[in-house]
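Ops channel
N.P.: pipeline sanity check, posting one input/output pair.
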């Protein structure tokens, strides 16, 4: 583990710094065939978890045509999964430390499979929203349980780095596989088929999990504090809701109230953890400088990823006119970049200091984001694919290394809680990306269209066009050809203006975090403590 004295100058020996004692590196056994098979099972579960975060976006048009949800219901169908996951990650991580990480994973996998079947055949929008919320609760058990189990299974630092790289690659692959498989299913079946992708994977986890995954719980853990759990869930849901509300509707009283309420409840949560003898989350973790910096870098890395992922699928479908399947195909190379880059990071970090590798990766991702400034309405497919691959290759080592730094800073009995913090930070980074970059993009889109829409549109059609690019595409198709073409061109150019600005902002954020990584993490040596 990269457990270091943050005050040690570069080039000197480092001293392990943790909250609790660690076993001697020399005593750590190597993982065998059982552990590697277990890792493969965990990776499949992570892949499905990530797929459910993205695959439904491709099914939105079919859901709208079949279930006829209101605009508010459609937003809840898309967002409630992420809300529940974000709100429950820390709670589920600490819960797993207390009742057993494998047990919690098995319960979550079973629930995920059953609810996925119900969601696939949901007859109404209300039932689908309920299913998505339940899937979020079940999904919140997967990420912290799988990551903390990896730290239990792989005690050797070199093997653990590889395992974490596989874990990160599985999450990244989920987005690519979700788009590809989801697009293929939607070309031939109904919208609910995308939910059924999870069922065989979760069934495999339930069969093999008890045979290849170890059980671990903190023998000294106290009882789960329901009040702290409720405060944590309320804080995260309110904050994420407020940030997404800003992205959708701009700054308004509802969003500000949600953010203020989430911050206030969060302050109560922190105060309760500091005053309890047996806190749900040990906030002493945040005293570790490496933990804090790695968490910040991980969050900004997710923020940067949303700088392009938030818009690139819309660019392929609504600007270039690709089908869902074709969109999945052209987005696959980006996912492949993560799949290739994540396992390579442990090899590179043997000879390159983690701070330098993270800094280089973030700088590379900024180059990919800057390439997106040259996307145009008339073309740019190849450029968008190349830019996405550069971004994914740059970010791939960042997520794996920072995840290991975050969780590795915690004693083994608190790995579940640290995993929850790591994943919650990622969720917050994503929510910030959606709210900040999304609100800027929407403001630019609507501002441009206020001046560039052709005359003669009805007020209702004008409002729809200024709402989203998807709505503009539908309105343009119902208008006479010459007017419809003008409307569509104006909407696409306004959308691209937003893409260019937000990609530029994300590129600057990537460059800034690149410098921070080099300056604040350069004291961590290459290789592992065992090698030093």
């Amino acid at each position: 583990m990269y457990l270091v004295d943050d005050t040690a100058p570069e080039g000197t020996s480092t001293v392990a710094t943790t909250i609790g004692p660690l076993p001697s590196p020399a005593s750590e056994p190597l993982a065998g065939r059982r552990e590697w098979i277990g890792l493969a099972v965990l990776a499949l579960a992570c892949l499905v978890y990530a797929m459910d975060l993205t695959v439904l976006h491709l099914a939105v048009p079919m859901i709208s045509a079949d279930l006829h949800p209101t605009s508010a219901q459609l937003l809840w169908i898309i967002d409630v999964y992420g809300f529940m996951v974000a709100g429950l990650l820390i709670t589920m991580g600490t819960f797993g430390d207390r009742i057993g990480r494998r047990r919690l994973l098995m319960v979550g996998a079973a629930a995920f499979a059953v609810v996925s079947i119900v969601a696939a055949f949901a007859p109404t929008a209300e039932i689908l929203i309920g299913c998505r919320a339940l899937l979020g609760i079940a999904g919140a058990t997967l990420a912290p349980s799988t990551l903390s189990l990896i730290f239990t299974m792989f005690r050797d630092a070199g093997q653990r780095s590889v395992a974490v790289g596989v874990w990160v690659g599985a999450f990244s692959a989920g987005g690519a596989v979700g788009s590809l498989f989801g697009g293929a299913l939607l070309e031939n079946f109904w919208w609910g088929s995308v939910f059924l992708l999870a069922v065989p994977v979760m069934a495999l986890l339930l069969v093999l999990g008890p045979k290849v995954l170890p059980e671990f719980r903190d023998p000294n853990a106290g009882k789960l504090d329901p009040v702290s759990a409720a405060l944590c869930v309320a804080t995260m849901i309110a904050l994420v809701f407020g940030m997404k509300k800003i992205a959708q509707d701009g700054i308004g009283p509802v969003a500000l109230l949600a953010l203020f309420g989430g911050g206030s409840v969060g302050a109560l949560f922190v105060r309760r953890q500091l005053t309890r003898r047996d806190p749900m989350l040990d906030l002493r973790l945040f005293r570790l400088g490496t933990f804090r910096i790695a968490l910040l870098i991980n969050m900004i890395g997710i923020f940067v990823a949303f700088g392009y992922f938030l818009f690139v699928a819309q660019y392929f479908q609504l600007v270039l006119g690709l089908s869902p399947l074709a969109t999945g195909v052209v987005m696959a190379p980006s996912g492949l970049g993560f799949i290739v880059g994540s396992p390579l990071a442990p090899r590179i970090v043997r000879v390159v200091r983690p701070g330098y590798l993270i800094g280089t990766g973030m700088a590379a991702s900024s180059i990919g984001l800057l390439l997106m400034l040259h996307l145009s309405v008339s073309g740019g497919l190849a450029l968008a694919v190349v830019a996405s691959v550069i971004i994914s290759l740059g970010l791939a080592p960042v997520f794996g290394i920072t995840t290991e730094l975050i969780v590795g800073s915690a004693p083994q009995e608190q790995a579940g809680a640290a995993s929850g913090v790591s994943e919650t930070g990622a969720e917050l980074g994503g929510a910030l990306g959606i709210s900040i970059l999304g609100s800027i993009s929407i403001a630019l889109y609507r501002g441009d269209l206020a001046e560039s829409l052709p005359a003669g549109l009805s007020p209702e059609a004008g409002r729809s066009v200024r709402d989203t690019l998807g709505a503009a595409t539908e309105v343009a198709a119902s208008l006479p050809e010459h007017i419809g073409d003008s409307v569509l061109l104006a909407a696409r150019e306004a959308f691209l203006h937003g893409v260019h600005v937000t990609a530029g902002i994300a590129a600057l954020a990537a460059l800034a975090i690149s410098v921070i990584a080099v300056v604040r993490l350069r004291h961590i040596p290459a290789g592992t403590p065992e090698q030093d």
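N.P.: looks fine end to end. Residues 481-521 form the longest helix (41 residues).
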